[in-house]
Amino acid sequence: MRIATWNVNSVGARLPRLLDWLSTAGPDVVCLQELKCAAEAFPFDAVGELGYEVAAHGTGRWNGVAVLSKVGLTDVRRGLLDEPGYQADDAEAEATEPRAVAATCGGVRVWSVYVPNGREVGHSHYAYKLRWLDALRATAAEELAEPRPFAVLGDFNIAPTDADVWDIAEFADCTHVTEAERKALTALAETGLSEVYPRPLKYDVPFTYWDYRALCFPKNRGMRIDLVYGNPAFTTAVQDSYVDREARKGKGTSDHAPVVVDLELG
DNA sequence: ATGCCAGTTTTTAACTGA
């Protein structure tokens, strides 16, 4: 089974590139993030023609996640256990956002997640990011009571180590590299998960994100923030994993590249 | 080659992203 995760930065704007990539890479299961469309506006027909069922969770302008599957799609769950919301400065109340959706596909339990950005250390969005990650940990812990292959895939907006950004000196006092964020990843792993570390197709670190600006991609000024965490039943089945940087090339691309995992399930 | 921000809507500016 081939399973992938990709922050597409608008499934509408990315549709031609997405369909092309689905056709050539041929993943069985795909976790998408940053749909930037309402669930009902997802291009179900276009991906349906390629054989995918879809569980979409989106509200419009921001965020949005989905699971696509060619190997069955059941037990869809939208949102985390006791998921916190975000209260914008001008909002009267906090609101939950579409950042997590799960489905069981071909016997594998899959979560597609889009962790809040955090904006700046000390910002209310940063506190929200840490609360959200704790809810993700609690949700994983709850679902890991079952022994089936289980994985959380998505845009974590955290670089696990200093080597996972192009130059740690550029990230002083920045989000994505703080101890608190990394501790949240460790806490998630301590529920019984470990990271699947992908192969880079070029260079030494498999970055998954490069800013659109300032020639970041040609200069390989990237970050490794799209991650895959699996339980032992999942990770022991892994045959290969890589970041498909080819999908970041050319016109009309996302600023993220897909992470692909190949499994041999017993 | 990899090519110098892009996406959305509360649209012609503001906000978000990381």
Primary descriptors:
6 helices, 6-stranded mixed beta sheet, magnesium, alpha+beta, globular, 266 residues, ExoIII-like, Deoxyribonuclease I, Chain A, DNA-binding, 21% helix
In short:
With 266 residues, this protein is an alpha+beta fold. The chain has one domain (2-263): Deoxyribonuclease I, Chain A. It has helices at 15-25, 44-48, 124-143, 179-189, 216-219, 232-235, and strands at 2-7, 29-33, 53-57, 65-69, 74-78, 100-105, 108-114, 150-155, 194-195, 209-210, 222-223, 226-230, 238-243, 259-263.
Number of domains: 1
Secondary-structure element order, N to C: EHEHEEEEEHEHEEHEEHEE
Give me the secondary-structure category: alpha+beta
Could you state the CATH homologous superfamily? Endonuclease/exonuclease/phosphatase
The proportion of residues in beta strands is 25-35%
Strand order of the largest sheet: 3-4-2-1-14-13
| Name of the CATH class | Alpha Beta
Gross morphology is: globular
- Count the DSSP helices: 6
Nearest-angstrom radius of gyration?
17 Å
Present the secondary structure layout.
Layout: E1 2-7, H1 15-25, E2 29-33, H2 44-48, E3 53-57, E4 65-69, E5 74-78, E6 100-105, E7 108-114, H3 124-143, E8 150-155, H4 179-189, E9 194-195, E10 209-210, H5 216-219, E11 222-223, E12 226-230, H6 232-235, E13 238-243, E14 259-263
Parallel strand pairs: 1-2, 7-8
Antiparallel strand pairs: 1-14, 2-4, 3-4, 5-6, 6-7, 8-12, 9-12, 10-11, 13-14
The chain binds one DNA strand of 18 nucleotides through residues 9-10, 12-13, 34, 36-37, 60-62, 117-119, 157, 174-176, 209-220, 223, 225, 245, 248-250, 254-255.
